[in-house]
């Protein structure tokens, strides 16, 4: 009988905060930019330069801590983590070891197996390092310090996850909480959310944890899921062969779907942490904490509950819409203007989702205004344009955020509701298609569809389909 194994997973998630400036200086945190242009003596580690803490970083960290049910450390400090690496100009990183800002939290996830709480051991604030670029052509390494000093929070989970599915559910939950708070855009592909996976396997029922490895370089949910499956299989194979799993840091290569050892953790690096001498402790008063608590926005879970009560839309729609803060904002703003939640939901769920998929875009990249979507809904409801034309207009709204009223006017797309004009066109169509008329009168009711199509074609798609049907039936009787 083969042994049953259980995977034990904990995550360290780094999130770049959405501040305009860095954590200890006034340089821009904007992504991109020519190498080494968002820098100054502080973030390039020049001797004699001194850090000044960015207050917004503390506020975002507290907001994330409150939203993940953590205890806030009201007297917290920064520490120096010492290590040498070319992208780390000071030869130390300012982080928090002894008194992290948030502790003992947790979030609830839901998977096919049901609900489960994943514990959060701590959240601490720190500065990011620069970035090394390896130039194969010149056979050298270059360093870009633009990212150096960008504020991060590191969210350290408890080893509570048992599968890739739980890991993805946990990351998704964190990402939505942080996006709703506006604390970060959490774009994995730009590195503003990065996850390191600590994974071990043990026999089902064993009390002790197995030896864990840490995997880095994971920049998409798919890569994370593949890395977990790959590493689990690798460790089980070693155990089955009677070999040791070595505690080490591994780098996942998503193209080859394999992980490589980077460095051993046997001689676990001694970072010689000591309290950061250039920064005073951070004291978070009760008033400050209450002010942040009072300003917390409505998070996704509460939004979902409210949507189900307040708007007459299917649960599935509510799930998808609240799955993106941008989508939820557009939905609420448009509904506030036109007062038709079901119609707004339909446009978002069908046409918007279709165009996002076709253009390979994220909901965050939607550029049209709620005002213009509301105008289009009003035009359709009033019968000023028919559904075919409305879709065509919406594509323009989606692409260029045009004013639908103006567009319909300029392109002459209004539905023809003039009965006289319609009647004479339909009489002509009936005269030109004796066979279809014959079929219809012989009980082939489908034949009327062809005649409707011909009429719409003659009217360049701008006729009112209801009226066309009505007149046709009357003339064919």
From TrEMBL:
<dbReference type="InterPro" id="IPR042114">
    <property type="entry name" value="GatB_C_1"/>
</dbReference>
<keyword id="KW-0547">Nucleotide-binding</keyword>
<dbReference type="InterPro" id="IPR014746">
    <property type="entry name" value="Gln_synth/guanido_kin_cat_dom"/>
</dbReference>
<comment type="function">
    <text>Allows the formation of correctly charged Asn-tRNA(Asn) or Gln-tRNA(Gln) through the transamidation of misacylated Asp-tRNA(Asn) or Glu-tRNA(Gln) in organisms which lack either or both of asparaginyl-tRNA or glutaminyl-tRNA synthetases. The reaction takes place in the presence of glutamine and ATP through an activated phospho-Asp-tRNA(Asn) or phospho-Glu-tRNA(Gln).</text>
</comment>
<dbReference type="InterPro" id="IPR004413">
    <property type="entry name" value="GatB"/>
</dbReference>
<feature type="domain" description="Asn/Gln amidotransferase">
    <location>
        <begin position="329"/>
        <end position="476"/>
    </location>
</feature>
<comment type="similarity">
    <text>Belongs to the GatB/GatE family. GatB subfamily.</text>
</comment>
<dbReference type="InterPro" id="IPR017959">
    <property type="entry name" value="Asn/Gln-tRNA_amidoTrfase_suB/E"/>
</dbReference>
<protein>
    <recommendedName>
        <fullName>Aspartyl/glutamyl-tRNA(Asn/Gln) amidotransferase subunit B</fullName>
        <ecNumber>6.3.5.-</ecNumber>
    </recommendedName>
</protein>
<dbReference type="InterPro" id="IPR003789">
    <property type="entry name" value="Asn/Gln_tRNA_amidoTrase-B-like"/>
</dbReference>
<dbReference type="InterPro" id="IPR006075">
    <property type="entry name" value="Asn/Gln-tRNA_Trfase_suB/E_cat"/>
</dbReference>
<dbReference type="InterPro" id="IPR023168">
    <property type="entry name" value="GatB_Yqey_C_2"/>
</dbReference>
<keyword id="KW-0436">Ligase</keyword>
<dbReference type="InterPro" id="IPR018027">
    <property type="entry name" value="Asn/Gln_amidotransferase"/>
</dbReference>
<keyword id="KW-0648">Protein biosynthesis</keyword>
<dbReference type="Pfam" id="PF02934">
    <property type="entry name" value="GatB_N"/>
</dbReference>
<comment type="subunit">
    <text>Heterotrimer of A, B and C subunits.</text>
</comment>
<keyword id="KW-0067">ATP-binding</keyword>
<dbReference type="InterPro" id="IPR017958">
    <property type="entry name" value="Gln-tRNA_amidoTrfase_suB_CS"/>
</dbReference>
<dbReference type="Pfam" id="PF02637">
    <property type="entry name" value="GatB_Yqey"/>
</dbReference>
